[in-house]
Design goal:
Blueprint lengths: L9 E2 L1 H9 L9 E2 L88 E3 L17 E3 L9 H4 L5 E2 L7 H7 L5 H7 L4 H15 L1
Parallel strand pairs: 1-2, 3-4, 4-5
Length: 209
């Protein structure tokens, strides 16, 4: 897909909503200061590379939304729907995702440092290479998530994390996470057989020196 939007085009959230209502979906590279889209239906909207720091998306329907490479630092998505959305490479530092539905979403390479995922539904989500340092997953639900090549420390230390179905964990994830004391138990809850979990962690320790 080609993105032809001009960088740095500034709009207000009201202008975005009005244009969306007229049928526009592509808001590539726009900058929206003090954006408030709370409680709206913005399904299929494309914010590729957009600057939306501190934006309000609480209770918003964002099914099939495009936030690839966008800056959403300290945005608030509380109770929103981000199902089947492209969040690859986006910046979510300090962003609130409490009770968000991420079913089928892609978070590959996203910077979620210090993000709040408490009570989020991570169903069939893909997070390969994402960064979760300092993030909170207390009370979140995991189901068929692809956790490849990711430091799982924040997930291992989460309280009341619910495992609805097995999740995928590869050797790269274990290499990045083997120092966490709860990794073994976390792997078992994700459906990894005990013998494999022990072997992978032992190998990671040996290779990691």
């Amino acid at each position: 897909m080609a993105f032809t939007g001009q960088r740095g085009v500034r709009m207000t959230s009201r202008e975005v909503v009005e244009e969306y209502g007229r049928g526009r979906r592509d808001f590539t590279y726009v900058e929206v200061a003090k954006a408030d889209f709370s409680g709206m239906n913005l399904e299929g909207i494309r914010f590729y590379g957009a600057r939306l720091t501190g934006a309000e998306f609480a209770g918003t329907s964002l099914l099939h939304a495009q936030f690839k490479d966008a800056d959403l630092t300290e945005a608030d998505f509380t109770g929103s729907t981000l199902a089947v959305s492209d969040l690859i490479g986006a910046r979510f530092r300090g962003t609130v995702f409490s009770r968000v539905d991420f079913t089928g979403a892609a978070l590959d390479g996203a910077d979620c440092t210090g993000a709040d995922f408490r009570g989020a539904f991570l169903n069939s989500v893909k997070v390969e290479g994402a960064h979760f340092s300092g993030a909170s997953f207390d009370g979140a639900r995991l189901s068929r998530a692809n956790l490849s090549n990711t430091d799982l420390g924040a997930l291992c230390g989460a309280r009341n994390l619910r495992h609805d179905n097995p999740c995928s964990i590869d050797a790269h994830a274990v290499m990045k996470s083997y120092g966490h004391p709860e990794l073994y138990k976390f792997m078992l809850r994700c459906g990894v057989p005990a013998l494999f979990a022990e072997s992978m962690i032992d190998c990671a320790r040996t290779l990691g020196g």
